[in-house]
Amino acid sequence: MADLESNLLQTLNAQETIADSGELAKTLGVDHMVLVGTIRSLQASEMIVAEDIDHFRYALTEESQSYLTAGSPEAQVFDAVGPNGITMAELKAAVPGEAGDVGFKQAMQGKWLALDKSGGGEPRVVRKVESIEDRTQALLADVAAGRELAQSDAENLAKKRKLIKPEQWKTYKLTKGPKFALERKKPATDLTFDMVAKGTWRTQEFKEYNFNAMGQPPAGGHLHPLLKVRTQFRKIFTQMGFEEMPTNQYVESSFWNFDALFQPQQHPARDAHDTFFLTKPAATPSDRGVPGDYLQRVQSVHESGGYGSLGYGYSWKLADAEKNLLRTHTTAVSSRMLYKLANQPGGFKPAKYFSIDRVFRNEQVDRTHLAEFHQVEGLVCDRGLTLGDLIGVLNQFFSRLGLKKLRFKPAYNPYTEPSMEIFSYSEQLGKWMEVGNSGMFRPEMLRPMGLPEDVNVIAWGLSLERPTMILYGIDNIRDLFGHRVSLSMVRKNPLCRLGL
Amino acid sequence: MPTVGVNRDKLFEKLGRVYTDEEFDQLCFDYGIELDDVTSEKEMLRKELASQAAKGAETKLAAEAAAASEEVIYKIDIPANRYDMLCVEGIARALNIFRGTQPAPTYKLADMAGKPLLQMVVKPETALVRPFVVCAVLRGVKFDAARYNSFIDLQDKLHQNLCRQRTLVAIGTHDLATVQGPFTYEALPPEEIKFVPLKQTREFNAKDLMQYYLDNDQKLKKFVPIIASSLVYPVIYDANRTVLSLPPIINGQHSAISLNTRDVFIECTATDLTKAKVVLNTVVTMFAEYCERPFEVEPVEVVDAFGAKTVYPDLSCRSLSLTADYVNSLLGVSLPPQQVAELLNKMQVSATLGADGQALTVLVPPTRSDILHACDVAEDVAIAYGYNNIVKRIPPTATQGRELPLNQVTEMLRAEVAMCGFTEVLTWALVSRAENFDNLRRPDDGNSAVEIGNPATIEFEVCRTSLLSSALKTLAANKEVPLPVKLFELSDVVLLDAAKSVGSRNERRLVAVFAAKESGFEVIHGLLNRVMEVLGVPHKDEPGAASAPVSYHWAPSDDPALFPGRQAAVYAGHQAVGVFGIVHPEVLSRFDLPYPVSALEINIEPFVFDQYYNSLLQPLSS
Question: Least enclosed by CB within 10 Å: which of B310, B342, B458, B466?
Fold first, then answer.
């Protein structure tokens, strides 16, 4: 092929014009159809210009091919009849098939033969002329040789006798195209080091780029979407002046998780079917980490109250407080931090704390529940804080999350009073959605710790997973957190714009 | 949070007006309850039917559904401490008083002057199993089908919630006309207790009855363990030795109440006297509404094992003193004392202003057992005033924002590892024991992992002591992802640590895995070098490392989870901080991974220091 292309280009270069590609094919000894392929390809590259030349001729049919040598059917019949004539049956045997029928008809029409019925009996075919000239054969020989026939002969042979058929084909007149060259240049797909180094990019032809396809994905790493959201929450909290609590301790005693929070020992949350209790390490001895006087105050506030409270009026069991568990909320950490705040050297100082970390619930895993999830918690501890301060700080915090329209519903929580559920109006969904829980820690929790009388703590919490699922359009929590996440989800998620 | 289903039309009848669902939802929101669902019996059965049909046709249910009422039912979520709102009577009463359409009722005991008190005599043996009983009588009650059902439902709801599935308190209600006081509360060997229990036609002894319930009764069998192991069972007899009830399991058929019952005898047996009193008060204050003399309850004298007599129920109001200043300072409002008193009336709490015009004497009715402290009263003021009417204020507390250094280093390191081409995953701290040990070919010495006693699923038996299993599980769950796959996670493992007061501590680790057609050992090795580079920790052979406060190196190791000869332990100074290597092929096969994987896991806590290499770790507890 390359040779053919090269030959063609050489010839064209020498002759400036190739009058007929048909001739060229003959010269080059190739089938014209093969040459056409090369012509088209060069034409597409604008290296040559090809003008159509229409061709027309008659060609022999398969049937008439044999008559070239054997003679036309009428001549064959004439020969078979011979000088003495023969019967129809004998003629059919001598020139069988269609040739016999057609030849007999033609010979009769041309008055070469006649039917002699004079002898009585079977009629005989006899010659009417001594000799004939087989003109049909001569005409077919002309067609075969490419000679042109007279119009009447051509029509007669083509239409009436169907011995020849018309054929049409194209050849081309070739001239040089605008990009004519003796050698074709392949268009490059890319700019290479070589082209830049040698400067060949100046003359190099470039293949058109397919702009309909996506580019190649970068090979770099990716951050997990839930943790991207966590990062933004951390920024919002620190920008608001909150200090992060050390929540890197999942194992907690019931004391700090429940009792210190004034959550009674019969509370349903302390049931085995809600909380992961541990067999190892099974308990935190009460003499480790909890000063005896504080422990005593917690016991008595549960049993008989104090600090203006009635208490729960039940028999508080130390063993229940010592039971270890996987913390059910990060508020267990808040209670430790508040105790420290009350008992630090130099006395109480106001504080704003936050944390975002895992909490554990003994639940069956399904679309909306995991046995572990992330709790976001914020609290402010200061003298003279009010419910109005809580509403204020919640508005500040949630507006950073883009939730500017809030309302609050009275709620119940064992360790806060007053308690408020936080609702936000979703413009997208056209309804109010619960977005968190909040309240002021009860005096039965704060006073036994030793926090001064006028110190109040306002606090709120929400899960990290729920806003993330809404943000990233994930409806199954297992697709977000856990080993069954799809890596393509991790790879494809956008920036978290919370807090912008 | 308990959910109570109430007939909407009956509720609206009691409220004296019809609400749209939206209006009622708003009223609930303001009061702090929640309209959870609007449905009907038919609808609920239909839903149940649909879920049953999924398991196999349930024709009986279909017939029930077809016959069921289409009357609208409101499912209302009630705060867990408002036991007085667990029935339509209580919900309507609370909302009526809140809206000012009904004054708070005064609950009182019947005047028994000159009349004998019914007695309940407690035998000492009850102390062995269920020591307390409190009683009351409702006289001249007018039941109809709706009231009767509500009466039964309230007991159910109380049993489920405050009574902690009857362990703390169990309620028995009886047709007083069928029994004869004085009653005795006894504890006897189960074989000696014989009676025809509710819904049965033949006599059982208590021992056989327990077995019968275990074998035949889905609802009652869960209560059997409360007393089953006791030598003696609690039982209440009347003067003629008729069994009223076998608490906390079942009442006797003899004294069963019906629509025609007029005088109702109520007994609450308990292991917690405080809660027994609350339960009794809740039942009588709700249904005294239907008594011949509304809100009047006939007391019963309980004679304890020592002969001491106490009259129940105690319907007196508790008195609490507070000031408007206290309320205002807690809520951040400035309401005049008179307004505080008026608002409290809307919450069933009566308040009278003292002579100084400041002090408020608050009387808490027996229905409001949730009020323990003045702060509960303040919350009621806030609810009545409207949470959303309180003016917001930004707390003046000026403090400095600060991240926990451990988490701050974690955040920076996450970004650096992602820059190295690794994709972050986030996996659970809870794993099965096999995943944590056997599948990693690591022995369980019984002394490294925190063990969970009561996991709901076998997936969560222990806290992971290594992040590696979770990373391998993530690879296994993502086998269709084209190789190579590079994953990392920065999370906590949980280790037993006897030196800690809780017996355990978390440790922040980095795990990274590389999965490809070839192991990629050198890729993981390179990541280790890069991580140490960004942490500012030189290799010990680097020039100048000798003078650095900390340097690192690695040395061949023999972790069974990794391939022999293709693994090394990582050291910070002399402290071993992790390992890296090719994951052992047996481990791969146990995690169902078809391709080689290399892994790195290191503790990053030794590297949480400031620019002067001072450690910034600050553990929560000692």
Answer: B458
Q: How would CATH label the architecture of A73-133?
A: Orthogonal Bundle (1.10)
In chain A, residues with a C-beta closer than 8 Å to the C-beta of B404 are 244-248
Instruction: Using CB atoms, pick whichever of A231, A252, A276 lies closest to residue B452.
Output: A276
- Residue B296 sits in the same domain as residue B353: no
Q: Please choose, from the candidates A400, A365, A369, the residue with its C-alpha nearest in 3D space to the C-alpha of residue A463.
A: A369
d(CA B146, CA B518): 74
CATH number at residue B360: 3.30.56.10
pLDDT at position B48 is 77
pLDDT, position A1: 53
Searching chain A, which residue's CA lies closest to the CA of residue B167? A266
> Does residue A409 sit at the B interface (CB-CB below 8 Å)?
yes
CATH superfamily of A226-492: Bira Bifunctional Protein; Domain 2 (3.30.930.10)
Per-residue pLDDT band for B621 (boundaries 50, 70, 90) equals confident
> What count of CB pairs under 8 Å joins A to B?
327
The answer to whether A485 contacts B390, with C-beta atoms less than 8 Å apart, is: no
Q: Give the separation between CA B467 and CA B604, rounded to whole angstroms.
A: 13
Determine the structural domain holding residue B26 and report its residue range.
Answer: 3-99
CB contact under 8 A, B451 and A351: no
Contacts of B392 in chain A (CB under 8 A): 388-389, 391-392, 395
Question: Which of B382, B400, B477 is opposite residue A243, by nearest beta carbon?
Answer: B400
Q: Are residues B93 and B175 in the same domain?
A: no
pLDDT at residue number B570: 98
For A456-487, what is the HEC assignment? Answer: EEEEEEEECHHHHHHHHCCCCHHHCCCCCCCH
| A1-61+139-182: CATH, from 3.40.50.300, 3.30.1370.240, 3.40.50.700, 3.40.50.2300 | 3.30.1370.240
CA dist., res. B246 & res. A352, Å (int): 54
Domain match, B380 and B239 both? no
Domain ranges of chain A: 1-61+139-182, 73-133, 226-492
Question: Which two three-digit tokens encode residue B620?
Answer: 């929560």
Q: Which residues of A touch B79 (CB under 8 A)?
A: 410-412
The count of other CB atoms within 10 Å of the CB of residue B66 is 11
- Enumerate residue ranges in chain A where pLDDT < 70: 1-2
Considering only the beta carbons, identify the residue of A326, A388, A417 that sits closest to B390.
A388
Q: Is the entire prediction scored with pTM above 0.90?
A: no
